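Mods, move this if it's the wrong board.
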Amino acid sequence: MSDDLVNRLLGGGDPDLDCEACFERIDVYAEAVLRGAISDRQLLDVVTHLAGCPACREIAEGLIAALRAGAPPDDTK
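Not the wrong board. Structure tokens:
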């Protein structure tokens, strides 16, 4: 498979985020997860980083849990 095809399939040739860059966007990621909008192309680099970084993934999961715990109840259920 050519590099060009791989880059197009994976959303570009941008390098993986480092932990610091991921941490700067983790709040946006957590809010997107809660909205069910994680397929946003702008967050694919965060998703990729979290898949390979247990430390950042733990932070993201903790933030998501905290946001869910503090979210007002959904009366539509």
